[in-house]
Amino acid sequence: MTWLRRNRLGLILLPVALALALAASSSRLVHFWLPYVASDVQKGTVGAPVHLEQEWIDHAGTHTRSVEVTIHGIDKTSVVRDFDGEDVESHGPTGTAVWRVSLSLAADADQVLRGCQLEVEDTEGRRYLFGSASTTPTDVKASPCLNPHEEGPEGDFFGTGPSTPDPEDRPRPAQWDTVADVILAGDAVPAKVRLWWEMPVVIIVPVTPTS
Amino acid sequence: MSAADVWRRWLGGRGRSLGAGVLILASLAVGRVITDRLPDAESVIEKPIERRGVIGTPIALRIGDVTVTEVTGATSWASVSEGKRTQGVWLAASIDLLPSRRESGLSYAAVRDSSGHVWELGRGESTCKAPIAGVPMHCQVLIELPRRPISNAELVLRWTNFDDRFDDQAVLPLTLDQATIDTWAGTEGPIKVPLATLGDS
Q1: Residues contacting residue A124 through CB under 8 Å, at least 6 positions apart
Q2: How near does any CA of chain B get to the CA of A91, in Å?
Q3: Per-domain residue ranges of chain B
Q4: In angstroms, what is the C-alpha Rg of chain B?
Q5: Which fold has domain A42-206?
Q6: How far, in Å, are B64, B134, B154 from residue B99 at the CA level?
Q7: What pTM value is reported for the model?
């Protein structure tokens, strides 16, 4: 009996044992990495609604975020939408360009949708986050996903109970259109729009600029 | 059967296992000696990768290119909103930053010497924040130092102090001899700290 033959069971089990050992030591990946990166991607296409569902926690308990997002496109813009929902003339520093992402959302009125983040990625993989306050004027609207004064309820993140609504606020409609103005490098060509509330669930929609 | 025979038989039957045991103990001992002589794994793994350069030439970091264009000093500085004096000296480094990936600025800046002293931002300031990828930014960092020469001083620049990804940092040699410190201590300033500018203008 050759050595290989005598040890065949062990040799077959060796890679299995190695795989098991690796899997067993992957807990750090599961607990400390995947929840904090965009590991749950909902890929969409322009004009088609993408449904995002995610559990989130505040002092009032565990909630389920359920929202439908449609990215309609991206164009260069010479205005930005300010905190009153008005479009005002705007410009960035030399060597930059402002792009406008058009999107629409649909969600129940009790859904907490503040804290949404939107990022444009260009063809070179460079990322541009909504809210980079380098445009003039700088007072752009607070949320890329919501319209000013129609932002809906807030989460209880500090244990202070329900907040008193702003008297200027109106109820959020069941479906709404909005825009997100993002400042990019002048030579950047948008390739993707990324939208999320909390990691790891992220909507990614490839876009082709129409202007 | 004599006692010696009993021993011989016992040992004879167990020669292999005893040999294996001795080998295991020996390899454990060797392993222990090796690990004792190697540096602590955690400190090696967590050590940021250092990109060394000099004033005036770009240093390529993961977040983009960092060029320290000038280093000056005085006893006070003034920005658009605040100003600070010191009993020591303020070091001011002018920086050209070209982020390559995203809006990563420089939130960590420090001066360190060869004997392990580190002077971090503290009361100082970094205006190198919230840039735009692909758009050059001109900005400054200000670090408060004691009024004495610092031998083998180095300027360290990194995008964040809360680095959980073992990222890289720029390291530049500084000349902080008696003459430099005396000049800075004799310059009241204030060093002007405008808002960072973006774009090629």
Answers
A1: A188
A2: 12
A3: 3-37, 49-198
A4: 28
A5: Immunoglobulin-like (2.60.40)
A6: 4, 6, 22
A7: 0.80
Partners of residue B136 in chain A, C-beta under 8 Å: 95
Burial A131-144 (b: 16+ CB within 10 A, else e): bbebbeeeebbebb
Question: In 3D, which of B80, B81, B99, B93 has the Cα closest to residue B119?
Answer: B93
Model confidence pLDDT, tens digit, residues B31-62: 999 988 888 877 777 778 899 999 999 999 99
Which of B96, B128, B129, B132 to probe the A interface (max A CBs under 10 A)? B132
- Chain B: nearest CA to A17, how far in angstroms? 22
For chains A and B, CB pairs below 8 A equal 56
The interface predicted TM-score (ipTM) is 0.79
For chain A, which residues score pLDDT lower than 50? none
| CATH assignment, B49-198 | 2.60.40.1240
- The predicted pLDDT at position A164 comes to 78
List all residues 6 or more positions away from B16 whose beta carbon is below 8 Å from its beta carbon.
Answer: none
- State the nearest Cα–Cα gap between A130 and chain B, in angstroms: 11
Q: For every one of its 201 residues, what pLDDT tens digit does chain B have, with 9 covering 90 and above?
A: 688 888 887 777 777 888 899 999 999 999 999 988 888 877 777 778 899 999 999 999 999 999 999 999 999 999 998 999 999 999 999 999 999 998 889 999 999 999 999 999 999 999 998 899 999 999 999 999 999 999 999 999 999 877 666 789 999 999 999 999 999 999 998 999 998 898 875
- Amino acid symbol at B6: V
Look at chain B and count its residues.
201
Residue A135 tokens, joined: 């445009």
Contact B199 A127 (CB under 8 A): no
Between CA A177 and CA A71 the distance in angstroms is: 10
| Domain locations along chain A | 1-36, 42-206
